[in-house]
Structure formats: C-alpha cells, structure tokens
Specification:
heterodimer; A: 152 residues; alpha/beta; Rossmann fold; five-stranded mixed β-sheet; 4 helices; globular; B: 485 residues; alpha+beta; Cytochrome-c3 Hydrogenase, chain B; five-stranded antiparallel β-sheet; four-stranded mixed β-sheet; 16 helices
C-alpha cells in the first residue's frame, strides 16, 4: 500500500508553514517502505499530479474557520469539503473539483483521503516561525498523523 | 446608498473584494476593487544575502514562482555586474517558456476560459473546468492535464522540483540539459505546439463563432483606451524573458522604450486610502485618476498589452495568429479587455514554439552555463514579463551583497488601476435601477476582471490561505439582500 503524507503551505508566511513543520517532524520519526513524506506549496490541479498513484493520502494544512481557535486540529474527509465545491477557491480550483476532474479523466486517485487541518492565526505576515498556539499544535498534529499511519 | 459586495472573487489567485455602491436611484455610484494587506516582505528580505532572493521571492506565489525566480535572477546579474554566457540565457528562456505553457493553459481552461465556454449565465457549479470538459470532451481535459504535467517536468529537470524550482544564479544557472534530457524536451515542445494550435481552435469554435460572445468582446462595457506596456526584443517582438520595456499610447504609437535600470524614471505609484494595492502609472503622463485616454497615466500589462506594445511575434504560427486577431478586431491597438483571453492563447502558442526553437538550438546542451561574478555588488534591477504582466525586482545591497532594500513591482499591480476601471464600467453598464441583480449579472461584472488573470497573492506579496471573504449585497439601510459566493 502506497501512502503519501503531504504537508501543504508556505514556509515563509508564519502560520502557513504549519503543514511543512509537521512533515519535517514526521520525517525525523518515520521511514518505511511505501510511505512518502512530502512538502508542497502546490494547489489545485497540481495537487492532482502529486497524489495520483497513491492508495492513501493524508494532507496536512492550515485552515481558518469563522470563530475557530488557533491550535485546534480537525480531522476531515473530502465529504466535509463538499460545501467548498461551489465556493471560490483562491487557488483557482478547489480540492474537491480537482478530485472530481481526476475521477472523470480516470486518473488513478487515492481511495482514501484524510485531511488534518490546523486552525491558524496569522497567514499574512512574512516570518519563518508559527504563532505560539500553532507551534503548540505541531506535536499534537504529528501524533495524530502517526496514529493514522498506525505508527509508534 | 446601497452597497453590493462581490467577495470572494472567484477563480483567480489570491483573494480580494469588490464593493459596489449604489445611490438612492439604484445606479452605480462607485466601485472599489480591494486586496488585503501585505505585511513585511521588504522587511523580511533586509539583512539576507541577495543570492537567496530567487528562492525567497518565488515563495510569494504558488502559481507563478518561476516569474519571480527569473526576475530575481536577472536582478542578481545586474547587482553583481555579470553577464551570463549565451547557453545559460537560452536555457533560462527555455525554462521560462515551459512555465508559460503551463500557466497560460491553467488560466484559459480553469480560471478565465470557463466563462466563455460555459457562458456567463451557466450555473456556478458548471462554470469551471468540469463544465468545460463536459462541453468540449474528456480528451481535451486529459490534454490539459498532460501538457501541464509535461512542462512541469521540464521545470523539474532544470530546477529540481516543479513548484518553487532552484535554478537561477547571478551570472548563469545551476543546471543544464544533457543530450537525453533535451530529446525529452523536444518531444514535449512538439506536443505543446499542437496543444497551442488546438486551444486557438477551441477559442475559434466556441467563442469567435458565437455572435453573442463576439458582441460581448467588442462591447463598450468591456473596453478601455489606455497605454500598453510589455518587454520586446531588439526587433520589437514580444519576449517574456528579456529585452527593453516598451510602452505605446492609446493610438498604438511608441511612447517610451527603456532598459530595466531606468524604470523609476518612467513608472511611479499612486496611493489610494481605500486600497493596500498601490496603483502604478506613467510618470511622464501623470496620474489623472481612474480614467482612460492619452492624458491619463494609467497603463495596462499582460497578454493583450504585450501584443499591443510589440510589432509582432517572434515565431511563425503565433505571428499568424497575432495577425488574425488584429484583422478580426479592427487593427492595432485592441482596447477590448475580453480580447486578453485571445491574446493569452496566442502567447501560449508562441511559448510552445519558442520552447521548440530553443530545444533545437545547437548551444542548448552546452555546459558553459555560468559566469562567476567578481565585481562588488551594489544595486540591480531585473525585469521579466510574468504571465500577468511586467514584473520588476530591484535590490540594493551593501558591498557584501546583503540586502539593504528590496522593491518589487509585481505584474498584477500594474493592472490595478485598469482593473478598478473595468469593474466600474461593467457595473455601470449592467446595474440599472429596477433591474434584478442576478448571479449571471454579477458574474458578467466579474468577467470584466478575469481576463487580467490576477495574481493577488503577488499583488499583496501575500499567499492565499485566508478564508475567502463572502460577497454580500446591502440595501441603503445596510440590510443584507443578496449573497454571492
């Protein structure tokens, strides 16, 4: 079984680096055949290129929700993103649409897609660390992904 | 006064907000195109070695990192007073051409194209790539994915990864292409040229043969008579990678032509209290407000502007397509904003042809790809044409090459004034007292800015990651009467 853990974000935009940070921590702890750990700033259609061919994909990304508390971690499936299908995506094409496109074009998409989304505070300032509440969430997110992987 | 807000703006990079204010009669009083705040980029780069800037600045945007990477690399050439060897320049342009193929493809099929292909009155759920594929067929959808993937592969070959490549150095590049790799590039280039031709055919079949669409393109609601700016080579032909900046006036006459170093003599930025985006304008004409015409310093950039500012294309099929567009639309310059979609496809074809040309160049597999800098760095300017327009990077360093000051004028920002004017005009034409404000009508207002292929991430030196702001329509009493998302 081929699994991809994909951390998304921007490493120089404060809390938007959280996805990358989780991958970096995982990389220090995990190494096994069939498991790929990757960071990417790609979005939309390019994501499709990255996830094709894997059986399972775990995304790790920053999220901002109305009234959300920074540091909260959500475990989502694509069915939770159903509502975003009709919403604009700032990246030009949202994940759900990209997946639907992949399905129609018969691209080998993963059967299982999980998203760990970490509520963040600041994605508007250039800096290389996360804000305190988000920093605290990183090890927790790492633990949740590890559990998902059936790991130590 | 009634307030209509279109928020989030759909199908572009980054996010922004359009607010439309109606007066008591229900006519458009004013419009404001807003983007969120940039925070701290210039400060972030201070104190860093200038050589890091091609990696850092490309992080500004996940869609056009190659553009920043290239502008930054050229700024470093200038900063360190080095001239790259010829094979390095050709490889940079090859890399850049592959990038253009992916980027323009993305815009036409995913961001801007769906409006035309599906029609502005199609339901929101269909005005995207899925609707397009439903209409033009799965095969074309597969071709879109394939062409993007193949050209990303070229970028990967040279830059080490597809998004945020590592490639440009002051005086050259870090990696070239060997005989085996170039054969791959040659095949991808051939496929890309075919795809470029096909895309123009799709545009012809779906847009140009549809009278309603053509009427929309040439209608006054989507027309502005502005100056146009773009990079040109020594024969005044469009070049994305290098050359001089050429500006033509609304009648198409050359107004200015300058080397990157001289940009501050020609372009200044106007500030409005209601927007974080600054509005560049032509210094020698002056800022006269958000108005058209020869006396207004407002200028436009990006595909249509580039074609208007040049005398032609440097490759044969693109030149043919260029001539066809101008003869169809009544000569040069073309002021119809919606024609940007057409110009973009002509550029897509040019990028593919240029990729093919360069991949056949005898020098392209040379290992002479770097001139090591020896001079003391001080100040440098690098200008490229990003898909979204003229992109300028300007660095000032100390004698060790550590950044003291970094100024970026990003592509989309050059169009900021024109975007505001386009929205304003479309809103005025479409919103009339007593006329119902439907989703289709609001989408027709959005169609006024989509041709500009905005990258608001770059405009605010920000990156999407924010929740998108909702679009809301308010009556004069501040009551929410419509939501658009």
């Amino acid at each position: 079984m081929k699994t991809l853990v994909l951390g998304l974000g921007n490493p120089i935009l404060t809390d938007d680096s959280v996805g990358f940070r989780v991958i970096q921590e995982l990389r220090a702890r995990f190494s096994r055949p069939g498991l790929t750990l990757m960071e990417s700033s790609a979005s939309g259609l390019t994501l499709l290129d990255l996830i094709a061919g894997y059986d399972k994909v775990i995304f790790v990304d920053a999220i901002q929700t109305e009234g959300g508390q920074a540091g909260t971690i959500y475990r989502l499936g694509t069915e939770d993103l159903g509502d975003t299908r009709h919403l604009a995506s700032s990246h030009g094409i949202d994940l759900v649409t990209a997946l639907e496109l992949g399905k129609r074009l018969e691209i080998a998409l993963p059967q299982e897609i999980i998203i760990f989304a970490i509520e963040v505070a600041d994605v508007n300032t250039f800096s290389e660390g996360c804000t305190p509440e988000v920093e605290k969430a990183i090890p927790l997110a790492v633990g949740m992904v590890a559990e998902e992987l059936g790991g130590n | 006064m009634r307030k209509i807000t279109i928020d989030p703006i759909t199908r572009l990079e980054g996010h922004g907000k359009i607010e439309i204010f109606l007066n008591d009669k229900g006519e458009v009083e004013n419009t404001y195109f807003q983007v969120p705040e940039l925070r701290g980029f210039e400060k972030f780069s201070e104190g860093r070695p200038a050589e890091e800037l091609p990696q850092i600045t490309q992080r500004i945007c996940g869609v056009c990192p190659e553009a920043h990477h290239m502008a930054s690399t050229k700024a470093l050439d200038d900063l360190f007073h080095t001239d790259p060897p010829s094979p390095a320049k050709k490889l940079r342009e090859l890399f850049y051409s592959a990038f253009y193929v992916t980027d323009h493809t993305t815009h036409f099929y995913i961001l801007g194209g769906p409006d035309f292909v599906m029609g502005p009155d199609a339901p929101v759920a269909e005005r995207n790539i899925l609707g397009v594929i439903g209409k033009v067929g799965l095969e074309l959808g597969g071709a879109v994915i394939k062409i993007r993937m193949q050209n990303h592969h070229i970028i990967h070959m040279l830059g080490g990864r597809a998004v945020h490549p590592v490639f440009g150095l002051p005086g050259g590049i870090s990696k070239g292409l060997n005989e085996e790799e170039i054969k791959e590039v040659q095949q991808i280039a051939k496929d890309s040229v075919e795809f470029g031709k096909l895309s123009l055919k799709v545009f012809d079949d779906i847009v140009l043969k549809n009278k309603d669409y053509v009427d929309m393109i040439v209608s006054d609601a989507y027309t502005h008579r502005t100056y146009y700016m773009g990079l040109v080579d020594e024969k005044n032909r469009v070049n994305f990678y290098d050359g001089k900046v050429r500006v033509v006036d609304p009648e198409g006459k050359e107004f200015a032509k300058y080397a990157p170093k001289e940009y501050l003599d020609h372009v200044a930025e106007h500030v409005e209290p209601w927007s974080y985006v600054k509005f560049p304008f032509l210094k020698k004409v002056g800022w006269k407000g958000f108005v058209d015409g020869k006396d207004s310093g407002v200028f436009r950039v990006a595909p249509l502007a580039r074609l208007n500012a040049a005398d032609g294309m440097a490759t044969p099929l693109a030149q043919e397509a260029y001539e066809k567009m101008y003869s169809t639309l009544g000569g040069k310059p073309v002021h119809h904003t919606l024609a940007m979609h057409w110009a973009r496809l002509i550029e897509l074809l040019y990028a593919a042809e240029r990729l093919e040309e360069l991949s056949q160049d005898p020098e392209i597999t040379s290992t002479n790809i770097r001139t090591i800098p020896t001079a003391v760095p001080d100040e440098g300017v690098g200008i490229v044409e990003a898909p979204r327009g003229t992109l300028t990077h300007h660095y000032v360093t100390d004698e060790r090459g550590v950044i003291k000051k970094a100024n970026l004028i990003v592509a989309t920002v050059n169009n900021a004034a024109a975007v505001n004017m386009s929205i304003n005009k479309a809103a005025r034409e479409l919103i009339k007292p007593g006329k119902e404000i439907t989703e289709g009508l609001l989408n027709r207002i959005e169609m006024a800015w989509r041709p500009y292929d905005l990258c608001l991430a770059c405009a605010t030196h920000n990156l999407p990651g924010h929740p998108l702001l909702p679009m809301e329509v308010y009556d004069s009493k501040g009551k929410l009467i419509k939501r658009y998302s």
